[in-house]
Specification:
single chain, 237 residues, alpha/beta, Rossmann fold, 2 domains, 7-stranded mixed sheet, 8 helices, 16% strand
Length: 237
């Protein structure tokens, strides 16, 4: 069953409803579920987990890949990456989430949004919010990564924000080499340029990436684009 809007939007609507009417968030979520034809939010979440995009994407990814995950703000790219991580950890694989954007509390909240608690992933998932995050930093911290591990970096455009760090293209090449050598799957979240025409009805593509600094896109094996609840995984030519 397809929802009228992506699940993350339903959760945002529920939060707004909870604040506006002064009702518990659980009640607001149940109202959203009823609107979609489910008896409760827990039933809706369980059904969506069975066919969630994170599970589908993880099944498509091969060890050793460097994959771009790109979308405009608010389209669920970070939630998708976290869902991939949660699915991998649930399957007994190791996961790392490196973020220059969020705090650990933010990450925990977003994991709750997809029905996964950070506490329940302890031992399998490492969350790193250090300001020192770069390709070299990741190579040190995730040195235990092995074939099938999943590493997420949030996000591309922040990796070279400090002047003393290597240029962005070199960092991406190092991440690609790390993926090949360890057999880990590395997902690199990216922004889409503001000029992307959302009204056109199409999904963004490689030409729509926001690249303030040059990057060799050939380092990526594939790219996953999101927009308005739709997802496309494509090879990087």
């Amino acid at each position: 069953m397809k929802l009228s809007v992506p699940i993350y939007r339903l959760k945002r609507e529920a939060r707004r409803l909870s604040r506006a009417e002064g009702i518990p968030l659980a009640e607001a979520l149940d109202r959203m579920a009823a609107r979609e034809g489910f008896a409760s939010w827990s039933l809706l979440a369980a059904r969506m987990a069975e066919q969630g995009p994170g599970r589908k994407l993880l099944a498509e990814l091969a060890p050793g890949e460097l994959v771009l995950v790109a979308a405009r703000p608010g389209q669920g790219k970070t939630l998708l990456a976290l869902e991939v991580l949660a699915e991998a950890v649930a399957a007994g694989r190791r996961g790392w989430f490196f973020t220059l954007e969020y705090t650990e509390a933010d990450v925990a909240e977003r994991l709750r949004d997809i029905g996964a608690g950070l506490a329940g992933l302890q031992g399998g998932l490492s969350v790193d919010c250090s300001d020192a995050i770069s390709a070299d930093y990741l190579l040190q911290v995730a040195s235990a990564a092995e074939r099938g591990s999943v590493v997420v970096i949030d996000y591309l455009q922040l990796l070279d924000q400090r002047r003393e760090l290597p240029e962005l293209s070199k960092q991406v090449e190092r991440l690609a080499a790390f993926a090949r050598e360890t057999g880990a799957v590395v997902l690199l979240i990216s922004q889409i340029d503001r000029r992307f025409d959302a009204v056109s009805g199409r999904l963004p593509g490689m030409a729509d990436l926001r690249l303030p600094n040059p990057v060799s896109l050939q380092a990526f094996s594939r790219a996953c684009f999101l927009h308005d609840g739709e997802m496309r995984l494509e090879a990087v030519a």
